[in-house]
């Protein structure tokens, strides 16, 4: 994100004196990097025993939850709302927002952990964020030295360690989406002169490229339905030891950036049996590819009570144990299974589109056949009529033939009327007369 508020930047840049902070504000006089939904951090020991902050709101990274959130947050500025929407519709994996005023790579959290005196606000992915931030600072010719206007060891800092802010963009991205984001302060001058842009680019080009290649660190892969082989979206990817999950996007794909090591991964989705793969080796060069094929949960197999209906169904099942109720349960189970199957089927747009396309094609062929058939019938009717008329004319002629009367082979009449004495008729008459002569006159 190069800039979220170009107008504010332009305004402040043109002022003779900078540093009043007006460039941060939009036209409503709101600082956009304080306007994202606030993240409430509860103290927790990460599963690996390290003290971290865990967002109270981070339930499941679920999209519907996010959509609900964007609706309920009434105080969001339009720019913030747009950026949130943007991060909901694209499954970003890694990102950075570019700032000015210092030379450092700043990583989450910016918000402070509740009831904790310590300034540093570690996220469950603290090790990974340090790796990402260092990748940037060490690929930058000056940042890693950490000796610019503000001193930072290795040119990186935890957000809250530097100064605490609420409603920033990087905390939002990390907490509410599967995207890991850091904030890069590009230089000490908050409003750099246009003349310096070339040197900014030269300093940061390599670092930006090094940073984006970090998407190939950790684990990536797909999650499918074991039976239908369909990709599954919204599957929670949980790395044991880290209290932060990512989820699969529309095509069932996921990316989980991690530092090199050995990890156990559990994937979980409502309606499916969760699956764990153990001792997945993550190297430092490229990401490890893994695939999960999840089995559907049988409707009454929910002994682990993880499914959405498990409590309800087991209660119902225990209460009704007669033959009739078994039948009712079985029927409702079948209906529900059918409902889930059809819902998944319709939700799977590609397949739906293919089938709709084929149906449309079949309909078009049937329609074309009917049209051609109708036209054919019409055409042959016309031909038959014409033929019939011709045939009738011929019949009349044939019928007339015997009535031709001849008088001494010289004069002939048709239907009792005298025939015209045209040459054609004369010739016919002559021929005919000669035949008659041959027969009659021996
Ligand atoms: Zn900043």
Automatic annotation (TrEMBL):
The keyword Amino-acid biosynthesis does not apply. GO terms for cellular component: extracellular space. Residues 404-442 are annotated as: Disordered. It holds the Pfam family Peptidase_M14. The active site is at 185 (proton donor/acceptor). Keywords: Carboxypeptidase, Glycoprotein, Hydrolase, Membrane, Metal-binding, Protease, Transmembrane, Transmembrane helix, Zinc. It comes from the Eukaryota. The chain crosses the membrane at residues 351-374. One of its GO terms (molecular function) is zinc ion binding. InterPro entries: CarboxyPept-like_regulatory, CARBOXYPEPT_ZN_2, Peptidase_M14, Peptidase_M14_domain. GO terms for biological process: peptide metabolic process; protein processing. Residues 1-215 form the Peptidase M14 domain. The keyword Glycoprotein applies. Its cofactor is Zn(2+). Belongs to the peptidase M14 family. This is Peptidase M14 domain-containing protein. It comes from Rotaria socialis.
């Amino acid at each position: 994100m190069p800039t979220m508020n170009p107008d504010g930047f332009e305004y402040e840049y043109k002022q003779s004196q900078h540093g009043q902070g007006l460039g941060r504000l939009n036209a409503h006089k709101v600082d956009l990097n304080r306007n994202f939904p606030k993240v409430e951090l509860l103290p927790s020991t990460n599963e690996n025993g390290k003290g971290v902050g865990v967002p109270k709101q981070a339930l499941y990274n679920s999209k519907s939850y996010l959509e609900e959130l964007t609706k309920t947050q009434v105080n969001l500025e339009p720019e913030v709302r747009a950026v949130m929407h943007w991060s909901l519709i694209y499954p970003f994996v890694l990102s950075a927002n570019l700032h000015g005023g210092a030379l450092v790579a700043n990583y989450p959290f910016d918000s402070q952990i509740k009831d904790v005196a310590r300034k540093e606000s570690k996220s469950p992915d603290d090790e990974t964020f340090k790796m990402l931030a260092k990748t940037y600072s060490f690929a930058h010719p000056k940042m890693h030295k950490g000796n610019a206007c503000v001193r930072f060891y290795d040119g990186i800092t935890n957000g809250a360690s530097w100064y605490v802010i609420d409603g920033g963009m990087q905390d939002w991205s990390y907490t509410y989406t599967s995207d890991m984001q850091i904030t890069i302060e590009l230089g000490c001058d908050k409003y750099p002169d246009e003349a310096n842009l070339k040197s900014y680019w030269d300093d940061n080009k390599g670092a930006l490229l090094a940073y984006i290649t970090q998407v190939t660190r950790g684990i990536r892969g797909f999650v499918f339905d074991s039976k239908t082989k369909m990709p599954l979206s919204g599957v929670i990817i949980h790395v044991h030891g880290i209290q932060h999950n990512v989820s699969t996007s529309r095509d069932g794909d996921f990316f989980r950036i991690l530092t090199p090591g050995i990890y156990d991964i559990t994937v979980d989705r409502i309606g499916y049996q969760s699956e764990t793969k153990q001792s997945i080796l993550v190297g430092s060069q490229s990401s490890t590819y893994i695939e999960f094929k999840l089995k559907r949960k049988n409707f009454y197999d929910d002994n682990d009570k993880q499914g959405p209906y498990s409590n309800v169904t087991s209660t119902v099942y225990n209460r009704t144990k007669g033959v009739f109720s078994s039948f009712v349960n079985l029927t409702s189970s079948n209906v529900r299974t059918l409902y889930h199957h059809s819902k998944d089927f319709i939700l799977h747009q590609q397949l739906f589109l293919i089938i709709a396309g084929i149906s449309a094609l079949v309909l078009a062929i049937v329609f074309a056949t009917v049209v051609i058939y109708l036209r054919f019938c019409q055409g042959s009717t016309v031909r038959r009529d014409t033929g019939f008329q011709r045939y009738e004319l011929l019949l009349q002629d044939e019928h007339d033939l015997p009535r031709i009367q001849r008088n001494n082979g010289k004069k002939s009449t048709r239907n009792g009327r005298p025939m015209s004495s045209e040459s054609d008729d004369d010739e016919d008459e002559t021929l005919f007369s000669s035949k008659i002569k041959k027969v009659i006159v021996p």
